[in-house]
Every structure is written in C-alpha cells, then in structure tokens.
Amino acid sequence: MYVVLADNQDITRAGMMYVCQQMEQVEMHRAEDKTELIEQLRNHPDAVVVLDYTLFDINDVEEIEILYQRFPQVQWIFFSVDLSGDFVRRVIAIAPRFSILLKESPIQEIRECLLYGQRHQRYICQRMTELLLAPQPVSAEEDVKLTPTEMEILKDIALGQTTKEIAERRFSSFHTVNTHRKNIFRKLGVNNVHEATKYALRAGLVDSAEYYI
Fold first, then answer.
1. Residue 17 contacts residue 28 (beta carbons within 8 Å)
2. Element (DSSP H or E) covering residue 5
3. Structure confidence by residue, pLDDT tens digits, 150-202
4. Contact (CB, 8 A) for 5 and 13
5. Which of 71, 91, 155, 211 has the smallest CB count inside 10 Å?
6. How far apart are CA 177 and CA 7, in angstroms?
C-alpha cells in the first residue's frame, strides 16, 4: 500500500508514520503541499492519502471533488482535529472513496481506518458516526454569535494573517489566538481559512476591495 501523508502538523505526522511502520507492506511518503501531492498521485494513482484538511492547502469541497474526478482510484482519509457534520456529509456524498478519522481517535481506530483504505473501503470513526447520526439543529448565519475579539481575529484571518502574526500584533500568545481560531471555526461550522474567509466576506467583516488588495 502506497500511503501519502499530507499533514503539516509534526506531532500527528510522527504518530501516523509510527503506526504505518508497524503495518506490513506499507510504503509511506510525505507531501508538503498540494503540488507535491498531485505529483505523487500522478505516479501512484491508487494511493491512500491521509489528509489533514484543516491545515493542508486544499480550499473546499469543490476542489476535493475535482481531485477525486482526476484520481478516481485514490482512497482518501480525512485526518483532522475537528470537522463539521455538514462538511463530512458533503464529502462522503461524493464517493465511497472518502473516510473520516479524527485525531482524537484511539490507535485501534487509526489502524482499522488504514486497513479499510488498503481494501478500498470507507471508514468513519466512532465519534464522527455519532455526530452524523445525531439530530441536526436548524442553524442560520445570523444566529452565529462571535465575540468582538473573535470578529477582529476572523477579519485578520480573512486578510491573510497567520496565527503567529495575529498573536504578535495583539501582544497575545500563539496558544490564545489559536484557541480563538478554533472557537471561530467551530461556531461558523467551517474547517479551514478559505471557508472562514468566505463567511467574513458574506458577513461584511471584510470589504471585498480590501480583501483583493
């Protein structure tokens, strides 16, 4: 099994590489960015991709669907800290080639997910299965309640500032700003910067002219 690890978080990347080393007939390679990922898929069109969607440079579900159409034999494992139910439903509706694995999953689930990927089968971890089966509350954008600090940080994110840059400008710690970032994404039901930016533009937190400068 040829596994491509598209995860830019050092600690989880090391953990996944350790798990793969314990398995037989697994060849693991890293992809630092989307260009490297696509190049590896050209050479190994039946690979298993372990992807941290929230940190890797893939923008939205539409781009994921394009990648699936381009490489229909690839098995995808979305391996992230948190993913919204809406995002997961949209992804798994594309094809049975998409599996969901949260980073809090026990090592047994991680191994099982990789084995499912090897057999070209879908796997959804226990916590995400429970989330998908739970009754879905009715939500609307106007019901989202961000604090003034969260709105300021969301605007900075939408304008392209990194967590480190925001922390330095606000004289805050990286951990504090990163916690705000996670809370913003959770409240908005988004999974990455691109989706958060689209919300900020729709909500008028960022002027489109300011965004495109």
1. yes
2. strand 2-6
3. 889 998 998 888 889 999 988 888 888 988 888 898 888 888 888 888 888 88
4. yes
5. 211
6. 21
